[in-house]
Amino acid sequence: MIEIDLNCDLGESYGVYQIGNDREILKYISSANIACGYHAGDHNVMMETVKLAKKYNVRIGAHPGLPDLAGFGRREMNMSPREIYNLILYQIGALAAICQAQGVKLVHVKPHGALYNMAARCRSTADAIAQAAADYDINLILFGLSGSELIIAGKEKGLQTASEVFADRTYQSDGTLTSRVEPNSMIHDVKYASERMIRMVKEGKVKGADGTDIAICADTICIHGDEPAALDFSKKLKEALLKEKIGIRKSW
User: Fold this and answer.
1) Closest Cα to residue 40, out of 102, 115, 107, 106?
2) CA 237 to CA 221: how far, in whole Å?
3) CATH number of 13's domain
4) Per-residue pLDDT tens for 38-92?
5) Which end of the chain has the lower number of beta carbons within 10 A, N or C?
6) What angle do CA 119, 121, 123 make, to 5 degrees?
7) Which domain holds residue 167?
8) What is the pLDDT of residues 210-222, one digit of tens each?
């Protein structure tokens, strides 16, 4: 049976501001990318989300972002590779401490938002992120956009990598994600998203915004937990995968 990891960005509430339905979504996914306090999340939210992931036996990953709470980490910042290395290491360490206190393992690292997109195309950014992950723990799995500089950098640093595809985002012809400023960047039709996702897993292909086929590698599928329909998406996408005899990956 083909197996795929199903991940979701979680722990993105902050203080009294609540976002997403983490407790319910965790019932349908296999990996949780937990915000580490820079783009979203805080020490209390991180602890609660780790506890919930432990309860539902969901693998835990650090989801480090740019220091931009106001922009939810989705605005690019001009930072040197050294600054990026330091902010990644800082955030991994923060979440790892909470995992250790809860007796669970930190399994992977997945950059968030603008930082993720910067690492997809900029080799120096990708190298800084991969090096930080490798220096912290060479056994961490680095999540990155399929075919991106981050995946290449991770492999060169000796890390296991997981090529990520998106159920709820559209692609450009070069394999990059459509910018969120564009009206067609998000997919809200679950049936359409499911069909695309199954083709990505089974055929290794996805249609770009211009209609051309793009070759893609799918090790893990992302659902955005901050989207209003994230819970419904996670339920129905999992159902569609299992119906096609695509199992949810139990371990790496």
Assistant:
1) 115
2) 10
3) 3.20.20.370
4) 999 999 999 999 999 999 999 999 999 999 999 999 999 999 999 999 999 999 9
5) N
6) 70
7) 2-248
8) 889 999 999 999 9
